[in-house]
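FORM 7B: Structural annotation worksheet

SECTION A. Query
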Amino acid sequence: MTPTGDRPERVLTRALWLMAPTTTTVVAAEFVVVGLLPLIARDLRIPLARAGGLTGWFAFSAAVAGPFVTLLTSRLSPRVILTATLLLYAAGNALAGLTSDINVMLLARVVQGATLPAFISVGASVVTRLAPPAERGKGLARANIGFVLGVLLALPAGVALAQAGDWRLPFIVLALAALPLAGLVGLLFPTIDASKPTGIGGQLDLLRQPVFLRHLGLSVLLFAAMFSAYTYLGVWVERALGLSAWGVALTLFLFGAAGLLGNGIAGRYADHAPLGATIIAILVLLVSVNMAAQAGGAVLLAAAPLVLWSISHTASVTLAQVRVTLAGQAAPSFAMTLNISAANLGIAIGTAGGGWVIDGHGIGAIGAAPIGFAILALPLVITIGKTPTGGPAGASLRGSGHGPPEPPGRFGGLPKDGEPGREDMERHH
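SECTION B. Predicted structure
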């Protein structure tokens, strides 16, 4: 029961409002580096590839160590996980902004990467405990808004802050932003006590479900497709459109703002057909990226494709989170963690693949690699779509709108992840 008398909907809304800026700050720390690599390499007198390790090692740590950190922290309350991660990111960003030793920076990035999936999984935990079963997809989309903002706004914000030539400033800003957010979370985040999650063995059972593994594989390939182009968006805007550094920053900000529409659109279809919506979003992305590439230096011709690219990119990110979390309903927090790991693996693969294509054929070929990765994903889409209903596989097929109904209960379904139901939620404020 809830001693304070607050309704679960109100508690969920308060939690999501606090999670949005905190998640934005944490996720921005991963992607802000992308626009700063040339400045870091020049200032520290290291090869660009060595500086690129600040991105690669973060993603690798999130992909490999992230699931283990999530399992180890699964019995901690959401408030503790959020607050501790914010303080850790504040320290790591401050260290990165103050040191001149690339090895120290890499160590800080590895530690940050390892904790990212556990932090993001809090959203899945809170939503599955408090949202009605029929609205969990929508709730997950709302929880994902901070992730989307962090991905879309980090790159232009980093470029804008570093215009004076000081790449350290974005790290210091992120460090300072994390401190008051940690205080707010510690004081105001609902005290949802540590849950009684599915045991480690039960959570690892997800890795023995073929359909769930296909969903993870699909996330790897789709994120590779998205980021094989998105990683080089800033370079393309500068070279193809001939914009100044401030023009690039402004274009990227507008790109990110347009992307917010994609999160809203994804939320409307998340509960009914996340797999079908994912297919449409990726097709729109492929078309829009290549239309933008064909615009040449004509800014007006590129404007509409860039808006569609942003919307479809954001929708694809959100739908991937929802799709995999719903497919792993038996342990949704761990499912989201695994998807974050899969996404980071896909980002690393896509960045390498996109860079290889652009090195060989020029920035005008920015839309080629996404097509290749999408073609590789096609067999997984077909096999997931053909999965019969019933059992774990059927549960995952809510993605195509043909999954089994939720078990009956007061709120239309049973609690997932071994957690208490909405009325049986433990003490909160």
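SECTION C. Observations
Residues 1-5, 389-429 have pLDDT under 50 and may be disordered. The radius of gyration is 21 Å.

SECTION D. Sign-off
Analyst initials: ____
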